[in-house]
Write a structure and sequence with these properties.
434 residues, alpha/beta, Rossmann fold, CBS-domain, 36% helix, binds adenosine-5'-triphosphate, binds magnesium ion, nucleotide-binding, cell inner membrane
């Protein structure tokens, strides 16, 4: 999906060593010495090792990993708040790593908005004055400044609070103000570091939803650091998973869940809420036998394929779903030579979109005995969803690659309810350091 969009950020082989970086240290790096060994021998900390990835325009990229894995270092290398030891960062084709200090400051202001965990608001300035701050240092004139600030305040739902001081606002509202300040500058790229981590869970989820909505409206490019898998899933974009300063996998939550790159990733996603990540399209039994709406019942094959015997999917010339016909209805047709499938099709039956989460699809499936057609945006039939396929998919997800079969059996034996307890829709958070 991101391949079709313009590339906004390109990170090429970025390495960051903290400490007194001499040639001897770089030689160790080049020999591929492990992080700990380099640290023990030289005192230098390897923050990032040869990190490469890109971010498309309008994408929300979530950088995840345990504490100390290099997330913040990476984010700060993007705008050179931290100076990379090696590698290049290209933003809209500009090599940020070669900019001189004055150019860099101007480029940073114009291009990046930053939002942090602790909102960093000035306590003695009103919300409006705080939001105006970025514009003020850009030298924007007062009237324009106020207009833009008010617009941003409105966008984050803080209208009416512009004259308040930060201390008069709740944590969630302060974080909104922090976001408004980043939005007000019109910077196309937002860098957000654990921006919602200090908020309580309900407010946090609300902010995640609103960020996605804002993102749809404003088409910002967002790099969002988080150590929370649920948050990454809620934001819905690709995930860069880091460990010890290196990238271990890049992909959507669904891709990572379907094919974890190694045991570390598998462990990381073990407690993932599968229902919210897997999509109906991935689980649907693809290519069900389909029949054109103009086909007469008399012309149907005498023996239908097993998958169609129960429910026939009827499509138009373009492959778009017209409706479904229950298999047992066919024998009861009085004039099979004068009746088409289109005549019999139930046209407003339940359907599920391919990109719907399994969670949403299950709600539909629970209300039907027959397989439910799965369609794309244009109602083109992608497949059918059956309870059997869902159970099979969930059972498969129970056994990550590398897991010992015995453990899977034990899990299965403990599976007494409709779904295993570890798959129930509850908060699943990756472990983090305190
Ligand atoms: N200025 C610094 N000097 C020395 N080491 C540093 C410095 N900044 C970061 N590090 C080290 O680099 C590594 C990566 O740190 P970073 O802050 O990027 O991790 P993180 O993934 O953001 O962790 P957290 O989730 O705790 O914020 C850590 O081992 C950290 O101790
Ligand atoms: Mg950090």
């Amino acid at each position: 999906m991101s391949g079709e969009r313009r590339q906004r950020i390109k990170v090429e082989g970025v390495t960051k060593l903290f400490g007194n970086v001499t040639q001897a240290v770089l030689d160790r790096l080049d020999r591929g010495e492990p992080r700990e060994a380099i640290n023990r021998a030289t005192g230098c900390v390897l923050g990032l090792r040869d990190v490469s990835f890109d971010v498309a325009e309008g994408e929300i990229l979530v950088v995840m990993g345990l504490s100390g894995s290099g997330k913040s270092t990476m984010l700060r290398c993007l705008n050179r708040l931290i100076e990379p030891t090696r590698g290049r960062v290209l933003v809209d084709g500009v090599d940020v790593t070669t900019l001189k200090p004055v150019e860099l400051r101007a480029f940073r202001r114009k291009t990046f908005g930053m939002v942090f965990q602790h909102f960093a608001l000035f306590p003695h300035r009103t919300i409006q004055e705080n939001v105006e701050f970025g514009l003020e240092i850009q030298g924007v004139e007062p009237i324009k400044r106020r207009d833009r600030a008010m617009q941003a305040i409105q966008q984050v739902g803080l209208k009416g609070w512009e004259k308040a001081l930060p201390s008069q606002l709740s944590g969630g509202m302060r974080q909104r103000a922090g976001l408004a300040r980043a939005l007000a500058t019109d910077a196309p790229i937002l860098l957000m570091d654990e921006a919602f981590s200090a908020l309580d869970p309900l407010i946090r989820r609300e902010m995640q939803k609103e960020l996605v909505q804002l993102q749809n409206q404003l088409r910002k490019t967002i790099v969002f650091v988080s150590h929370d898998l649920d948050e990454a899933i809620a934001l819905g974009g690709r995930i860069v998973l880091m460990k010890d300063g290196e990238i271990v996998q890049i992909g959507t939550a669904e891709e990572i869940l379907a094919a974890p790159a190694n045991d570390y990733v598998a462990d990381f996603v073990e407690h993932i809420n599968v229902l919210s990540v897997l999509t109906a399209g991935r689980i649907a039994e693809s290519a069900p036998p389909t029949f054109r709406e103009g086909l007469r019942i008399a012309d149907l094959p005498a023996r239908l394929p097993a998958a169609a015997a129960e429910t026939l999917c009827v499509v138009d010339e373009a492959g778009r779903l017209v409706g479904t016909v229950a298999g047992d209805l066919l024998d009861a047709v009085v004039h099979p030579d004068r009746t088409t499938l289109g005549d019999l099709a139930v046209r407003n039956g339940p359907v599920v979109r391919g990109d719907a989460s399994l969670q949403a699809a299950l709600t539909v499936l629970a209300g039907c005995r027959e397989p439910v057609p799965v369609v794309d945006d244009n109602r083109v039939l992608l497949g059918v969803l059956t309870a059997r396929a869902v159970v099979a998919a969930l059972a498969h997800q129970q056994t990550p690659p590398g897991a010992d079969a015995g453990a899977a059996d034990r899990k299965e034996a403990a599976w007494t309810g409709p779904f295993p307890s570890s798959l129930s829709p509850r908060s699943a958070t990756a472990p983090s350091r305190g």
